[in-house]
Amino acid sequence: MRKIAINVLISGLGICCMASAFSEDTSASLNITGVVQEANAGCTIELDRNYMPLGAQDIKDLPMQGHYKDSVSGTTNVVRMSGDNCKNSGGGSIALKFTGTADSSLGNSFENSSTGTDAAQGIGVGVYGYGKNTIIPNVSDVPTLSNDYLFYVGMVKLYDTPSSPGLVQSTITIEVDRL
Asked: I want to staple 156 with a disulfide (CB 3.0 to 4.6 A). Which of 53, 65, 132, 147 is the partner?
């Protein structure tokens, strides 16, 4: 299968889950990568936004991993596919795969890659598709019915892991997968 990947750094996902907020400003970095190819060689993925700030959430309001909660999981983005080959020539369909480092608890959310004393513990990043179903990192093939695909992102508490407030960030790669 031919896969084309674009790295999307979801950074700046800071949270503070205490009654008081952090008083220090924190800068954010954005890495952008891509592939140059012939126009007829494939299908290109673009996102409405290259970063997704989730704001500050209280730990008690976060859902457990694998669950969606409107009030904290509703940050949206849209994958747009363009190019002459965004349909499978064999009559099959196109799907998206969300890849990256999965959490170490159940593996159905992306890990918090923030480190240091300001990093949140026991928190992951959940990705949800149509119907607000959980997209499992590195496993779920998400079929697309059109060249646009809306997805949701939100912070989640990890099972069997104590949670503490702090900064959250994650990196997700979205790939084209031909079924």
From this structure: 65
Q: What is the pLDDT of residue 96?
A: 93
Whole-angstrom distance, CA of residue 87 vs CA of residue 147: 9
From residue 86, alpha-carbon distances to 42, 48, 162 in Å are 7, 18, 43
The 10s digit of each residue's pLDDT in 112-171 is: 999 999 999 999 999 999 889 999 999 989 988 788 999 999 999 999 899 999 999 999
A 10 A CB-CB count for 104 gives: 11
Does the predicted TM-score (pTM) go above 0.70?
yes
Cα–Cα distance measured from residue 51 to residue 11, given in angstroms and rounded to the nearest whole number: 6
Q: Give the integer Cα–Cα distance in Å for 147 and 56.
A: 32
Residues 127 and 101: their CA atoms lie apart, in Å, by: 13
Q: How far apart are CA 139 and CA 57, in angstroms?
A: 28
Measure the CA–CA gap between 38 and 67, rounded to whole angstroms: 41
Instruction: Give, in order, the Cα–Cα distances in Å from 111 to each of 3, 46, 76, 114, 146.
Output: 23, 23, 19, 9, 29
- In the block, residue with structure tokens 């965004």: 86
3-state class of 1 per DSSP? coil
